[in-house]
Specification:
With 264 residues, the protein is of the alpha+beta class. It has 2 domains: 127 residues, Diaminopimelate Epimerase, Chain A, domain 1 (Roll), CATH 3.10.310; 124 residues, Roll (Diaminopimelate Epimerase, Chain A, domain 1), CATH 3.10.310.10. The protein is 21% helix and 43% strand. It has 6 helices and 18 strands. The radius of gyration is 18 Å and the shape is globular. The termini are close together.
């Protein structure tokens, strides 16, 4: 029987039971894809992340309870937390090699700052009635990312975002990976929620990766390079973003919930 350690970290929060939980599994060598997917199913959180050390970097992979994905912000932040706080990583920056390229994370003033690619949001013509029906409210505008294939749906107010009660069955049948709804914030630059039933996640508590698109979008609209964002899930989250040419620095706090061993 093999025993591997795990850590459960709440990302984009300073409080327990808020932010987005991710399970982090440090490995010396890769488990099989089937084993990693089974662990993700058993954990039943939005993402379980696995990493393996190489000469000067860490290879990282992310699994939802349904499938492997190519980019995840909150689980990357959680992995950096484990390396810096639990495994005594001595360097100033951690480089994760991923399906989305190299991702660099550093700890600055107790926040973990991730250097992620910038996404361009393109106005989406011919928005389907199914999307509007699923959300239950007509938006101001619909945009889409390429290649990550998320709809970004713009509303007028924070209250609009809070009041949405989506039909997840319809959302799960759309031709997109997920749906981001967003609006100007009352006590922040912007607010959002993220629905991804096609990935096995009805509503994600906190989603770092979609801020690769949200931060540049709101930065341009507000003429700001630094964006303070809130995700209005039931758990709630705070995300700090800085726009840097073709990159977005996505930062947040994290707290450990538990650790232990997985018996395989």
């Amino acid at each position: 029987m093999q025993r591997v350690p795990f850590y459960q970290i709440n990302s984009f929060t300073t409080e327990q039971f808020r932010g987005n939980p991710a399970v982090v599994v440090p490995l010396e060598r890769w488990l099989s894809d089937d084993e990693m997917q089974a662990i993700a199913v058993e954990n039943n959180v939005a993402e379980t992340t696995f990493f393996v050390p190489t000469k000067d970097k860490y290879q990282i992979r992310w699994f939802t309870p349904k499938l492997e994905i190519d980019l995840c912000g909150h689980a990357t932040l959680a992995a950096a937390y484990v390396l810096f706080r639990e495994l005594n990583f001595k360097g100033k920056k951690i480089t994760f090699r991923s399906l989305s390229g190299d991702l660099v994370v550093e700890e600055i003033n107790n926040k973990f700052s991730m250097n992620f690619p910038k996404w361009e949001l393109i106005p989406f013509k011919g928005c389907s009635q199914d999307l509007i029906d699923a959300l239950g409210k007509e938006p101001i505008e619909v945009l889409i990312t390429d290649p990550h294939n998320n709809y970004f749906v713009l509303y007028e107010s924070e209250q609009d975002i809070l009041e949405l009660n989506p039909d997840f069955e319809i959302l799960g049948n759309l031709d997109s990976q997920g749906v981001v709804v967003t609006a100007p914030g009352e006590n922040s630059d912007c607010v959002s929620r993220f629905f991804a039933p096609s990935l096995g996640i009805s509503e994600d508590p906190a989603t770092g990766s979609v801020h690769c698109g949200l931060a540049p979008f709101w930065g341009e609209r507000l003429a700001k390079n630094n964006i303070y964002a809130k995700q209005l899930s039931q758990r709630g989250a705070e995300i700090f973003c800085a726009i840097r040419e073709d990159r977005v620095l996505i930062s947040g706090f994290a707290v450990k919930y538990r650790d232990g061993w997985i018996e395989l």
